[in-house]
Amino acid sequence: DDKFGLEHRFSSMKDDLLLCDDSVLPARKIIGDRGGPASMKENVCQVCEKTGELLLCEGQCCGAFHLPCISLAEAPKRKFVCPECKSGVHTCFVCKKRSEDVRRCMIPVCGKFYHGECIANYAPTAPVNRSFRCSIHVCLTCFIASPNSSSISKGRLVRCVRCPVAYHATDLCMAAGSVVLSNNSIICPNHFTPRRGVKNHEHVNVRGSLLCCESCPAAFHRECLNIEMPKGSWYCNDCKAGKKPHYKDILWVKVGRYRLGTAQKDF
């Protein structure tokens, strides 16, 4: 069963990543960055998430910054290395906490750092020798459909600037609701913040004595799932795996007092 396989791979990966040693970084590009180094080049400022004329860090983070965002009046004449790369203490791209025990993704042009337990929560992450390739080098949609396919890391990917999620740059793969920042950078729907008082942003579940997913309208009888009633929030298998609706998908919607019905995601 594919879902069981993913969950088993998930749990065993956490132990593997804790043993990773990022002191050994490959000198050549490996599988997982088939789009080429240019496709990984940062073209959005890491501070304000906007495009423009950017100063590129030549340290390990490969980051990009607007001069005002890092309090510089003009570009340095020598090689620029950002404060984190100078100090050697980096921020985990998942939990956003700085610490000395974060490890760098082995893809040379990636520059993202993680706690082992943080990146292990993203299924496309792959332990490689004593290091790992992070999930940002794999299309999440294709991975969920076929984890062992060679196409999951091929072609041009668009990457979320806030978490290690990436998709092929097509409507078939990209999650609906993604905010496009540039040709290779997005803000994925995981970071959508509902606005208070806006009914369109309120969470809606089908009615009845059912176990309801906190992220989507899916609902199940506990007996049908053959599980104990969970305490607190509960998420369905699709939402736990990161599966999102895509443009042109048919999905359930509820508007006002009307009953649930089908609609097409084209906005």
TrEMBL record:
Q: Where is the PHD-type domain?
A: 42-88
Keywords, in A-Z order = Chromosome, Metal-binding, Methyltransferase, Nucleus, Repeat, S-adenosyl-L-methionine, Transferase, Zinc, Zinc-finger
**Where on the tree of life does the source sit, at the highest rank?**
Eukaryota
SUPFAM superfamilies the UniProt entry points to: FYVE/PHD zinc finger (SSF57903)
Q: Decide whether keyword Zinc is in the record.
A: yes
Q: Which PROSITE patterns does its entry note?
A: ZF_PHD_1, ZF_PHD_2
The entry's localization annotation reads: Chromosome; Nucleus
Q: Main site of residence? A: nucleus
InterPro entries noted in UniProt: NSD_PHD (IPR055198), NSD_PHD-1st (IPR059153), PHDvar_NSD (IPR055197), SET2_Histone-Lys_MeTrsfase (IPR050777), Zinc_finger_PHD-type_CS (IPR019786), Znf_FYVE_PHD (IPR011011), Znf_PHD (IPR001965), Znf_PHD-finger (IPR019787)
Q: What is this protein's name?
A: Histone-lysine N-methyltransferase, H3 lysine-36 and H4 lysine-20 specific
Organism expressing this protein natively: Xenoophorus captivus
